[in-house]
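Exercise 4. Each item below gives a protein and its sequence. For each, produce the structure-token representation.

Item: Adenosylcobinamide amidohydrolase (Candidatus Blautia gallistercoris).
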Amino acid sequence: MLIDTLPIKDPVHKYQKCIVVLFTGKRRVLSTCQLNGGYQEGLTAVFNNDIKPGEGMECRLLAPTYEEHLKLTAESLGLDPCTSAGMSTAANMDHAAIRTERCGALAVTAVVTGGIDVNGGRVGDPASWDELEDASVPVKAGTINIMLFMNTDLTPGALARAMVTCTEAKTAVLQELLAPSRYSMGIATGSGTDSTIVVCNAESEICLTDAGKHSKLGELVGRAVKAAVREALYRETGLSPESQHHVMKRLDRFGITEETLWEEFRKKIPGTGRADFSERLYQIGRDGEMVAAVSLYVHLLDQLLWGMLSAGEAHELGRKLLVMMGAATESRTEPEAQDMVTQMIRELKEALNDLAASWKIRTEPDLQADCFRSPQN
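Answer:
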């Protein structure tokens, strides 16, 4: 099924749970692919493969190694595995986002599939495996795969810079959406399995030397990738400003979940049913003032972890925020920075449970009046 045609006239097809771009001319390609990755000038096609046998099923390779899997996939798609570059994902190809940005003679297209909810990670998080030791740990599915196409030629250095700009754009979206790392307390910068293919038109009479943020090409790359990544994440998992506008979505990277709050709540205030507690927490979570206050509190934790605030500074303002939220706080000895993070998390959990105990349950019309709407939508 033909789903798009790029400005450079290359057709974009979707079939056999893959998105395939067939080159109609000479292209320069830089990619992170296991199959024919790196810098290539002789490729005839690139593809993105949904590795799940069926919807809701676990990912499964067709061969013992990832590269062999991609070779078999290329053959099944009718492609030459020697002149094709490919990548795989658990994302549904029906949820792919395609965005083109233009300015004068320049055109940039991003084709993106993505999911970050179960495998988001922050660069520098603890590794899942050591290739030298061959001691691997199963990694959860969740990948942002990007195919980026430019209608002009680029020098090899500019092609590499386009990949850097593309990666920055992806990370910027994750920062804006506050997507959590699943391996630390940080905000995700990507997933551990992300892959990128960058393609330029080697037959163009225009050859550009810069794809950085100061260049118009870099601006178009950033705009196209940001828009496509944001749309793909929404289509795959529902990630959006609206879905993130909830107290608990801001807190799960710090280990604060409904389950952990309930375990402490029922010990502190016996006799309250789980359904009643869940409704109270649900309403607290959607309250705009609570979301704003908790967001500020969380940013204090981030700045404390980054070394941008002292333990005392973060704790003092954190207590003021808890008071603004209507929670009582006790004066305690202030520990060092890392212990302070633990203490501030504990104090926030106690504050949320105190609020849940005293929260007056509102009716649905009242809740609808407070419902957040993103200005971008």
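Check: The mean pLDDT is 91.
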